[in-house]
Every structure is written in structure tokens, then in C-alpha cells.
Write a structure and sequence with these properties.
Elements (H helix, E strand, L loop, with lengths): L5 E11 L4 H10 L3 E12 L9 E3 L4 H10 L6 E4 L5 H14 L5 E4 L4 E2 L2 E2 L5 H11 L4 E2 L3 H8 L10 H12 L5 E7 L5 E8 L6 E6 L8 H14 L4 H22 L13 H8 L2
Parallel strand pairs: 1-2, 1-4, 4-5, 5-8, 8-9
Antiparallel strand pairs: 2-3, 6-7, 9-10, 10-11
Helix pairs in contact: 1-7, 2-3, 3-4, 5-6, 7-8, 8-9
């Protein structure tokens, strides 16, 4: 039996709403990967559509956690960062990478900061520039179309794009330093939605699409990223991990739509885990 893979997941904890670490921990763990969590903040709910939520910033605690792990001699097969609440946290994640990245450690960055053509209200272009700097240190980045547009200073093209636009974003993102880009929210026609994937060694991007199911369910980006990390740690290529993650997200959305839950509550990813494990051959 081979040694168990270990991933560091750096993200917030939202007590209700199925996102961030409350998605990453169960999904990646179910894929057989030890998931070590570095929380950036603790919230009562996520911020997408809820009001009067509580927020506890953990920026001041993060360096001490990192140093303790280093003193224990911990090492990681991958480092995955998601939502970061401030420019200071971006710098801390850079320090984390410097402290723990080894030759075979994969760094995966989901630059969670924008969607549907707009920056999240707590961020600005200075934050986007700092996030671009973090992405330069990554082996793989997972931006959506809006985030890619902000990071490349390109105009947001909307929910349906041209192939030329997508390939321009991919090239400009790769030029900023990451080894691979998986662009989410790609659509060339209204009834199909998927990803575009390109590595520095690829001559052409690879695409994968599924039927566009509609709705804007909160946390699906985290579900995608978590399934992607789980697949990657099980030996799948960047493109195959992306395909598996797309199929898993669609599986979760389809089940959630049948129940008719509030879109703020997130998707039923839990009962989709057997589907994901089947895709991974586990």
C-alpha cells in the first residue's frame, strides 16, 4: 500500500452554507487524501445573500499555526488556497508556500475574488494585483472568467464567450507564471458550460462541457476545486481532474434542483460523494 497523500487547505470556515473548508475537508478526505486545514476566518454563514453574519478574522493566528506545523516536520503533497480575506493573508500564503513547498509539492490556487463581471464588495484592484502575484507561485490556478479578466486587464466578456477570447485569457494567465490554468465558467453556447484547460507545454487548450443546468448555486466553485484536488492527488492529469470535477458539480446541482433548496444553502455534495469516488475508481 502506498503512503497516504496529504494536502494543506487554506480557506475560511463558514458554519452554514456549504462552501470553503466545510466542502474541502469532507470532499478531499473522502478521496483518500489527508486534509490539513488552515482556517483564515470563521463565519456563521457565507456572505453570499446572508446578512448579519458573524465574522472572526484569524489572520493573526495563521503564522503561529504554520510555525507549529513546521516544528513538527510536516510536509505536504499539495497546498490548496481558496478565499483569502485580505492582502495580508495573501502574503501569509506566500510565506506558507516558501516554508512548505518541496520539489514535488503542487501549489493549487483558486483566486476567489470575483464573479459575474464584478469584484466581491470587500476587494479592489490592488487585491486583484496581489492575488495575481500569488498565482505566479502556483503550479495550477483555477480562476473563473471574471477573475481571469481582472488578472489580465481584459474586459469581461459575459456568460457566453468566443474561443479567441478564452485562448487569449489562457495565454495571458500562463505568461504570469503558473504552470497550468483551468478556466471555469467557459461557454460558447448558452446550453453548454464547462472548462478550458491549458498547461505551458500544451500547444492547444483542452475543453470539456456539460449541459448548462441554470441557477447560481453558492459554493459550486469550492465543490469543483475540492473534487479537482482529490482527483489530482489520485494521479489524474490536470485535464482529467477538471473533467471529473465538472461532472461531480453537475451531479450535485441536479440533485439539489430536484429538492428545490434555496440557492444560498449550497449544493447537495454529500450524497454525490459515491458518484465522485466511482469516477476516481475508489
Amino acid at each position: 500500500m502506498t503512503a497516504q497523500k496529504r494536502i494543506a487547505a487554506i480557506n475560511d470556515i463558514s458554519g452554514f452554507g456549504k462552501c470553503s473548508l466545510t466542502v474541502a475537508l469532507p470532499v478531499i478526505s473522502a478521496c483518500g487524501v489527508e486534509t490539513v486545514c488552515l482556517p483564515t476566518a470563521v463565519l456563521s454563514t457565507h456572505t453570499g445573500g446572508f446578512s448579519a453574519y458573524t465574522y472572526r478574522d484569524l489572520t493573526g493566528d495563521m503564522p503561529a499555526v504554520m510555525n507549529h506545523w513546521k516544528s513538527l516536520g510536516l510536509s505536504f503533497d499539495a497546498i490548496y488556497s481558496g478565499f483569502l480575506g485580505s492582502k495580508e493573508q495573501i502574503e501569509i500564503v506566500k510565506d506558507f508556500i516558501a516554508l512548505f513547498k518541496r520539489e514535488r509539492t503542487l501549489v493549487i490556487v483558486d483566486p476567489s475574488m470575483a464573479d459575474f463581471g464584478k469584484m466581491y464588495s470587500v476587494f479592489d484592484m490592488d487585491f486583484a494585483n496581489k492575488m495575481t502575484g500569488l498565482c505566479a507561485l502556483a503550479d495550477i490556478i483555477l480562476p473563473n472568467i471574471t477573475e481571469a479578466a481582472f488578472m489580465t486587464s481584459e474586459k469581461y466578456a459575459g456568460t457566453v464567450q468566443t474561443r479567441e477570447y478564452i485562448e487569449l485569457l489562457l495565454e495571458k494567465l500562463l505568461a504570469k507564471g503558473p504552470g497550468s490554468v483551468v478556466l471555469t465558467g467557459v461557454s460558447f453556447q448558452e446550453d453548454l458550460l464547462g472548462i478550458a484547460c491549458k498547461t505551458k507545454s500544451d500547444k492547444e487548450p483542452q475543453y470539456y462541457f456539460q449541459k448548462h443546468l441554470g441557477g447560481a448555486y453558492h459554493g459550486t466553485g469550492d465543490v469543483f476545486a475540492s473534487a479537482f484536488c482529490g482527483a489530482l492527488m489520485n494521479g489524474f492529469s490536470v485535464f482529467e481532474a477538471s473533467r471529473i470535477a465538472v461532472d461531480y458539480v453537475c451531479n450535485c446541482i441536479e440533485r439539489t434542483k430536484k429538492v428545490g433548496d434555496d440557492i444560498r444553502y449550497g449544493v447537495d455534495f454529500e450524497r454525490g460523494i459515491p458518484f465522485l469516488l466511482g469516477e476516481l475508481g475508489l
